[in-house]
TrEMBL record:
Pfam family, one: Ribosomal_L19
Keyword Phosphoprotein belongs to the record: no
Name the record gives this protein: 50S ribosomal protein L19
BP term (GO), one: translation
Similarity annotation: Belongs to the bacterial ribosomal protein bL19 family.
Organism whose genome encodes this protein: Candidatus Yanofskybacteria bacterium RIFCSPHIGHO2_01_FULL_41_53
Gene Ontology CC: one annotated term: cytosolic large ribosomal subunit
Length: 119
């Protein structure tokens, strides 16, 4: 084990995004500060990418389609403003990055996820 991974394992805080896998449908609740008020904003979508694992610089990309427009949001794994993460559906996929879903319609995506979770 090299020095960087040893340091990260000792000093990294607990994360709610560590256990997420690509293909799962999740709902991420994040604290947003607007002026002197804070509120919770939820973002629901499919995990399409996971980069750099559980390192301190690791990220997870979540994609949703809203009114026919695709929205992607990238969350750092150790973001302190994340309150909770709900796993809504677990789908097994055969790829580590689901970037091909960007070109598909929502109907095709659902069909593809059903086929892969059944397999």
């Amino acid at each position: 084990m090299d020095k960087l991974s040893l340091f990260n394992s000792k000093h990294s805080p607990e994360s709610k995004l560590e256990k997420l896998q690509v293909g799962w449908t999740v709902k991420v609740h994040q604290k947003i500060k607007e002026g002197d008020k804070t509120r919770t904003q939820a973002f629901e979508g499919t995990v399409i990418a996971r980069k750099h694992g559980n390192e301190t610089g690791g990220t997870i990309t979540i994609r949703k389609v809203s009114d026919g427009i695709g929205i992607e949001k990238t969350f750092p794994v150790y973001l302190p403003s994340i309150e909770k993460v709900q796993v809504l559906k677990k789908s097994g996929v055969r790829r580590s990055k689901l970037y091909y879903l960007r070109d598909k319609s929502s109907r095709e995506i659902k069909k593809k996820m059903k086929q892969e979770s059944a397999a």
